[in-house]
Amino acid sequence: MKVVFQHFSTKRDICVLLDVPHMLKLLRNAFHAFKGFILEGFEHPALWEHFELLLKWEERNGWRAGSRITSKHVFFERYVYFVYIM
């Protein structure tokens, strides 16, 4: 993967830094937008609905099945965070 490109006007190299938390957030957003994906070698697709069903099951039964998924993870579009830059 190429992580350096030239600025269009200054011709200086620009380095792209990819950090894990933001890459995971992008993956989550893409997974939600496309409602799932197909993994090579698996018979059934991975669906966003599976996260919703797991969360509902855990809430209905009152305990977690080894996951740390919360409603903020599954229904993240409901939560808006404001960042103030001073």
Topology:
Blueprint: E1 4-6, E2 13-15, H1 20-34, E3 36-37, E4 46-47, H2 48-61, H3 71-74
Antiparallel strand pairs: 1-2, 3-4
Q: Your description of this structure?
A:
The protein has 86 residues and is α+β, with helices and mostly antiparallel strands. It has one domain (4-78). 38% of the residues lie in helices and 12% in strands. It has 3 helices and 4 strands. It has helices at residues 20-34, 48-61, 71-74, and strands at 4-6, 13-15, 36-37, 46-47. Strand 1 and strand 2 form a beta hairpin. The radius of gyration is 19 Å and the shape is extended. The model has no long low-confidence stretch (mean pLDDT 87).
Give a concise summary.
It is built from three helices and four strands, in the order ββαββαα.
- Residue share in helices? 25-40%
Give a quick account of the main beta sheet: strands, pairing sense, barrel closure: 2 strands, antiparallel
The count of β-strands is 4
Number of helices: 3
The secondary-structure element order is EEHEEHH
Strand order of the largest sheet: 1-2
Output the keywords.
86 residues; alpha+beta; two-stranded antiparallel sheet; 3 helices
